[in-house]
Amino acid sequence: MALLQSLNSVRGKLREEQVGSIAADSELTTVLIQLINDAGSEILEGDDWPFDVRHDGKAFFPSSQSGTNGTFGIGSGIYDTLKTALLVYLGDTDSGEVFADKDLAGFSMTDPVVARIIPTGTSYPNTSFKIANVEQDVLFFTLTLQNNLHTTPITGAAWTTYANEIMLPSTVKAVTSVSHEEQDVPLEFVGRGIDFDSVVPRQSTSFSSSPEVVFVGSTVTTTGRSGSQWTNISAQTAQTGKGMMIWPIPDDDLQLSYSYRVQHSDLAAATDVWAGVPNDVIHLIEWRAVQMALGSVIQNDEVMARNVERQVEKRRARAQIYLNAQPNRRRVPPMYGQHAHGNSRRRWASQTVAAP
Q1: N or C: which terminus of the chain has fewer CB atoms within 10 Å of its end residue's CB?
Q2: How far apart are CA 257 and CA 72, in angstroms?
Q3: Is 286 helix (H, G, I), strand (E, B) or coil?
Q4: Taking 80 as the threshold, does the pLDDT of residue 162 lie above it?
Q5: Contact assessment for residue 231 and residue 136, using Cβ atoms and an 8 Å cutoff
């Protein structure tokens, strides 16, 4: 049911005139739309409704890539004008031709990824650095790393790039299961304030074509892309949100499928709908909005508001039974490492992980 229909339904219950657009009677309409969205958030987030489960989630992870002829560090030339940023210049390995987009892991992806680079020579071996931004020029990729590297320039260095973290879409409220090639993959939950780096010791030393575990949660900031030389994709600014990480690091392109509970957004346009929400629940949301309006300065009728509240609770209970909804008690799933030890099923579990 579209927003305009719900708006007129609420107006009718409040004995207000119907409107032909959400711009009519703008002050009252604006307040009622906000009440509808508030009621929707309360009802939809308050219970685990079966209709909110989706099975169409796809996560793409690119293969790691390696090369030589990289320059690391702040030194002469262009580096003198950029003292605050660490730059990495990656020239073409052999031919001097322009890099294709796919030659750096993660940078040819349309999905927002967190890309990293590992110098594989004698300086900083097996140490991964998070890439804040990558700019493609005619002959080089210029990488700005998240943190400074305190060293003289390293030239002609070998390197490997990889991206085993992505940012989940804003429509994903909670991931419930993950599979790879129709095989379930163990799923671990990480608290929002815990960095993915802390849950897997020395993850940059392990590469495989099959994921052994998937982590969901944390808060990731993706790698931005700038410059005008991209051929397959457009520039993209860095984004921040809930993340997903796989381990080991993929050494081949792979795709994961996942099921999740959808995060509904507020309605704004007249034709906006809450996709998949049945009309019974929409009517429940409308009655909850009516109750809010009656108890506010719009109507200021506390007696009628309490009567409607009782009806709302009865309707909600019937909907929960009919739709087999489970009350959301906001249980927090056990986070990895909360007992200060790793998962015994993992190869790296012998190393202690600090408790959050």
Answers
A1: C
A2: 37
A3: helix
A4: yes
A5: no
Query: What is the Cα–Cα distance from 201 to 349, expressed in whole angstroms?
Result: 9
What confidence category does residue 97 fall into, taking pLDDT thresholds of 50, 70 and 90?
Answer: very low
Distances (CA, A) of 338 to 112, 333, 343: 29, 11, 11
Q: Which among 264, 345, 297, 201 has a CA at the least distance from the CA of 52?
A: 264
Instruction: Record the tokens describing residue 281, joined without a space.
Output: 């629940």
Among the listed ranges 254-258, 333-337, 351-355, which one has the minimum average pLDDT value?
Answer: 351-355
| Intra-chain end-to-end CA distance of the chain, in Å | 44
Q: Which domains does the chain have, with CATH numbers?
A: 3-49+277-324 (no CATH), 56-60+165-262 (no CATH), 64-164 (2.40.30)
The token duo for 251 is 């050494």
108, 101 Cβ separation under 8 angstroms: yes
Q: Is 234 helix (H, G, I), strand (E, B) or coil?
A: coil
